[in-house]
Amino acid sequence: MEGDSGRDRLEFTEYGAGDAWVVLVHGQFMGRRMHAPLARRLAAEGLHVVTLDLLGHGRSDRPADPLVYSVAAFAEQVLALLDHLGAAQAIVGGTSIGANVALETAVLAPERVRGLICEMPVLDNAVEAGILTFAPVLLAARFLPFTVTAARRLTRPVPRGIVPFWAGIALDSFDQRADALAAMVHGLLFGRLAPSSKDRRRITVPALVVGHPADPVHPAADAAMLAEELPRSTFVQARSILEWRVAPERLDRAAVGFALGCWRTTGRRRRTGA
InterPro entries per the record (predicted)? Predict the structure, then answer.
């Protein structure tokens, strides 16, 4: 799929078929493969699921221009994907920055979004931890690019088929080019990271919000705050940051039930946890 400029190549994977669309957006530095298990589970229930590599991630193009990287630009890529697929509406879900992208998509084009799945969004309470986490990455990529190159050369030859799935996803996150990595982190750190609270309160579609305890980069307070802001949200607290990765059945059931409900009906206001 080509971006709006006609220059940027974006890759995606489809699971299932039909008109009940779900788009899943990965977290920072990761790629679409991280959502393959959830995509397969949703597709098994009759949903048409698409996982997308955002610009600068996975197998999509990786330009070295910070101006092309922002949460708003990522949301525009989700909308371009829907146009490419001929999908009038979709549930948009994401993890970490991907959750922010889902929110931004609902703000930019509310008529295109059927529902939201937001796992560990990065909002007001994550600012300090985000700077402490990603500023060193930016500095290393900009001024010590050999460190990024070395990490890539060490991890890329490891066959993903011989390591556990999530270990492979972690290895994939080291497959970076220093110039593109610096541009991406720069663009995200100095741009709008998420819609404002005022904008978030105007999102009227059903939303499933998943928060994690004891996660400083994705504070549970951010997820709880988002669930309070969204007028038609369901809040689910994960048992740990690893639950959806290593023991996904409970959260998969929540996601499946939510997605099927969005496509069966517009739904009523929901505020209960699971």
Answer: AB_hydrolase, AB_hydrolase_1, AB_hydrolase_fold
Distance CA 29, CA 48 (A): 25
207 within domain boundaries: yes
Number of domains in the chain: 1
DSSP 3-23: -TTS--B--EEEES-SS-EEE
CA pair distance 194, 102, nearest whole angstrom = 10
At 175, the pLDDT band (50, 70, 90 cuts) reads very high
The answer for residues whose C-beta is within 8 angstroms of residue 68's C-beta and 6 or more apart is: 8, 55, 183, 187
In a domain, residue 165? The reply is no
- Alpha-carbon distance of 206 to 272, in angstroms, equals 13
Does residue 69 lie within any of the structural domains?
yes
- Give 207-231 pLDDT, tens digit per residue: 999 999 888 889 999 999 999 999 9
Q: What is the CATH number of the domain that holds 60?
A: 3.40.50.1820
Query: What 8-state DSSP symbol labels residue 2?
Result: B
pLDDT in tens, 31-74: 999 999 999 999 999 999 999 999 999 999 999 999 999 999 99
Nearest Cα to Cα of residue 236 among 249, 223, 225: 223
Residue 54 lies in a domain: yes
Q: Count the Cβ atoms, other than its own, within 10 Å of residue 237.
A: 16
DSSP H or E segment with residue 127:
helix 127-143
Show the domain range for 41: 12-125+192-264
pTM given for the model:
0.93
Using CA atoms, how far apart are residues 138 and 129, in angstroms rounded to an integer?
Answer: 14
Note the Cα 257 to chain centre separation in Å. 20
Pairing of strands 48-52, 21-25: parallel
* Neighbour tally for 144: CB within 10 Å: 12
